[in-house]
Amino acid sequence: xxxxxxxxxxxxxxxxxxxxxxxxxxxxxxxxxxxxxxxxxxxxxxxxxxxxxxxxxxxxxxxxxxxxxxxxxxxxxxxxxxxxxxxxxxxxxxxxxxxxxxxxxxxxxxxxxxxxxxxxxxxxxxxxxxxxxxxxxxxxxxxxxxxxxxxxxxxxxxxxxxxxxxxxxxxxxxxxxxxxxxxxxxxxxxxxxxxxxxxxxxxxxxxxxxxxxxxxxxxxxxxxxxxxxxxxxxxxxxxxxxxxxxxxxxxxxxxxxxxxxxxxxxxxxxxxxxxxxxxxxxxxxxxxxxxxxxxxxxxxxxxxxxxxxxxxxxxxxxxxxxxxxxxxxxxxxxxxxxxxxxxxxxxxxxxxxxxxxxxxxxxxxxxxxxxxxxxxxxxxxxxxxxxxxxxxxxxxxxxxxxxxxxxxxxxxxxxxxxxxxxxxxxxxxxxxxxxxxxxxxxxxxxxxxxxxxxxxxxxxxxxxxxxxxxxxxxxxxxxxxxxxxxxxxxxxxxxxxxxxxx
Length: 502
Fold this sequence. Notes:
Elements: H1 7-24, H2 54-61, E1 66-73, E2 79-83, H3 95-107, E3 114-119, E4 123-124, E5 127-128, E6 132-135, H4 144-156, E7 161-162, E8 166-169, E9 202-210, E10 213-219, E11 232-237, E12 244-248, E13 253-258, E14 265-271, H5 275-289, E15 298-299, E16 307-313, H6 317-327, H7 330-343, H8 351-365, H9 387-397, E17 408-409, E18 426-434, E19 437-445, E20 451-459, H10 461-465, H11 478-500
Helix pairs in contact: 1-11, 2-11, 3-6, 3-7, 4-5, 7-8
């Protein structure tokens, strides 16, 4: 089994550096022998432990494919160590670090997304003489609770009826059917995108066995509410495989699930392909609970004009980005990225077009000359970043203090896999995972407080090519491969602090 560095070894390295610094000082008075300080640890007199050769670490990881990395001293900007550092790798969700910087630059940390209820006609005695339009502003965090609050606020504003139609407008951003066409049809991390989204565009599917077979529900679940919906429908099919099938029924999602795969009961989130209609249906349910009768939501093609009766503001962008990086939410990354492109004056016709805009920005503003991104989340495997480009970019922005507070701690582990809470190297980073792709990039600070910016990419293209779209969510061997890659990532970080720490 590959051994991780010991905490004692790393601390010994730091103390060895301290001893070297002490012995290198010029004599203050004479060259007569001096007593050693009584509190100087014996470890300080030991020679610096030899760090393992990086090639040996890579060989023991048995990942196949390619490994690339780069590590940069944040204070000096010096490039300390590299491997395949100018080679393009699929970055996976590490892409989201670039997206965060892109969005902060274009929108600002305090930016808030707006979702509005717009009355297109005059309001007389609590009656809207015209249409009511639920108008999206690209908010990636809009949820069922927020729509419930908007319905309550509509009632509080004195509205009791609408003479016209109830409409939904999602044109602030283009409709994107899926983030990545190569993904299985049922995975919740590959939903549709639009200017009006709800619950990360996922519907909660739950089933339970009863005496007559199964009871099935499809709802827009939140912490407080469970409104059932018709925009996504499920039918149980008498088969063993495939587990799920999907059909676009023209105005709703039509799913089937294999009965033999259900067991006694369970639940999962499925992607929604009609996000604006989904939000409209849920809002209408809450409006009716307040006595405001609304018909089925109709799509609105042009931005509505009129009076904003109710406005829901999201949390600040910095908070949204922190959640995006913590939970690696793909929908959030794509909506934030496209909104940033629009704010910069770019024309967003597709996700790929917005990805190209962000790539151009990264090349110009961050010096990532080889950046080529097809989206903002990293789900698309055709994206490419280089380890050196990303590591240098992170070192460059470190002094601004924008990204580091948004990153989450990378868990350092003992050899047996348990969490090493007292590990002397502290890492704030973003992970990235696709099948047989694992990446890690961020900042690592050792016992000597020397901060390193780094990027590590690993990928086995041969194993990825063997996967088809019908592949299971966890292909055989993928979990073990990913675990070995993460172990290698920690070993490389420990090596760098052992070699380059003071």
